[in-house]
Amino acid sequence: MSSSWKLQPTHPVPSDIAVSKELTGKGLPPIKRIAEDLGVLEDEFHQWGPFKGKVSLSPFTRLSSSPSGSYVVVTGINPTPLGEGKSTTTIGLAQALGAQLGRKTVACIRQPSQGPTFGVKGGAAGGGYSQVLPMEEFNLHLTGDIHAVGAANNLLAAAVETRMYHERCQSDEGLWKRIVGSKGFNKVMIRRLEKLGIDKRNPEEFTPEEKRKFVRLDISPTTLTWQRVLDVCDRHLRAVQVGCGKNETVKSGLDDGKRVQHDRATGFDITVASEVMAVLGLTGDLKDMRERLGRMVVGYSRGGDTVTADDLGVGGAITVLMKDAIMPTLMQTVERTPVLVHAGPFANIATGNSSVVADKIALKLVGEEGFVVTEAGFGADIGAEKFFNIKCRASGLKPKVAVIVATIRALKMHGGGPTVKAGQPLQTEYTQENVDLVSKGCDNLKRHIENMKKFGIQAVVAVNKFKTDTDGEIAEVIKIAEAAGAYKAVMCDHWAKGGAGAEKLAEAVVEAAKVVNEDDFKFLYDLDKPIKEKILTICKEIYRAENVEYTEEAERQIKQYEESGFGSFPICMAKTQYSFSCDPTAKGAPEGFTVKVREVRACAGAGFLYPIAGDIMTIPGLPTRPGFYDVDIDDDGEVVGLF
């Protein structure tokens, strides 16, 4: 950032889009200059318009022998449905470290889904004077990564359907002729041959049985877990019937000459819930992504064998669709701090974190004295736990500090305050001083602080200030947090003041990073432990559950995954974000409850298992008055009404 330019916030703070338009129009530097100042070389940067561009993975390779910066994760307490400002705090802290303290800093955040953008929650650019600019570009198509994920996911879905259809319609020899034919075996076919243990490469040498093994996947429809996706909230696509067209018929299998409909029940997920997105978040490079995408499991054969993207012959094609998406997008904040935006995995059934490659690139670019601030979705019981046990395992990176974001509003809710509902006015308990309610709610915060210490890192508490918060309430949180073991707790006003409002938070993070020994960082469990033991460890150590119960279906799935070689995968729990328990109404710090796992699914490409506890929707619905009502184009072609 130019030393001659200083942010001058106005009060009251305008809407997010008004701030974005005002500052974008006041000489916001072209993104190419931000890239140059960060140390990205010209051939490593691919510009997309004046204010965003793709960064190749080359900086990490080029700077591999250079020291890395300090790694900081921003997480939070269990939130209200309104959100407590983790993204805003992530941006505010990065601005404070860069613009206020002069540290070379990069923020790494997820790309938001258009589902919440046009639904209830809104975007994820931050807010006020701590946001990514231009926010309308950030919150909408960006550089097309989510669309690439959707295209790759749906190509695989189409491959599943067409393979089942053609296997029902054709003989072994007919399938062999059309799949192998005169062209012989290509790379993706050789992967399947290797999986089958067939070392022949000359099609003329294959026996009828070997031909059958190669061409017939014999997918069991009841085991299929792969669904189509789109980046919209649409509850009516949760369950659909496909194959209903008049031409989608096959022979009945009886000697009656009749044809029957080749249809089945399936559904849609929101794009960010796709395993392709989870792969993007955890991959290390293009080669690694190709391997991960190819081994994604869509279901099982009737004989009990896994059926993968490579078995279907589509692993290479979906990698081609994702080859540009692997590059993070560079943008900038209100105070011109660099931001790498990359990946957007669902925070329930996936990791809820931005990508490994973005963090790795950023840590090398900032250098030894610099900082990388990344965000983990939802509360620390979900996002941070997955950040440590899954993302850091995949990356090999060791964080130094966890910033826990808390609000007076959420703490009052956890202390016994009335239910907070999106779209409804807050009740008086939340707008008037009530130190006792705040104090009781701090049980939730204290547990999150305790949990961070189990990973061997320092916890700094950021009390994200709202206009109705009182000095007495904020002082109570700071006192309780520091007594509970937080390295420091500070009030932040970055939404209204930008980086200056988070300067004390930045100072606390710098101090905490100095006292941390990276070797103190540790995982919660070993991967070689049985699946159930890993699940129980998370439930007891992080949630404070007493035990875990499984349905018969979950028991069957766990047995199948262990037989398939997935037993060593880390665990990605899918549960409510509103409580430590699986009951969203259980506020504060519940303990001694039972976690009930209804099913366990595998993301073999991403490399984790996700047990589902509770009613988790993989495609949200829209409210009566969605956010899209306010979004429009003005006479000058400018976006209006986006928050």
From TrEMBL:
This is formate--tetrahydrofolate ligase. HAMAP family: FTHFS. Keywords: ATP-binding, Ligase, Nucleotide-binding, One-carbon metabolism. GO terms for biological process: tetrahydrofolate interconversion. Pathway: One-carbon metabolism; tetrahydrofolate interconversion. It comes from Triparma pacifica. The keyword ATP-binding applies. One of its GO terms (molecular function) is formate-tetrahydrofolate ligase activity. CDD domains: FTHFS. It is an enzyme of class 6 (ligase). InterPro entries: Formate_THF_ligase, Formate_THF_ligase_CS, P-loop_NTPase. PROSITE patterns: FTHFS_1 (PS00721), FTHFS_2 (PS00722). The keyword Ribosomal protein does not apply. Its EC number is 6.3.4.3.
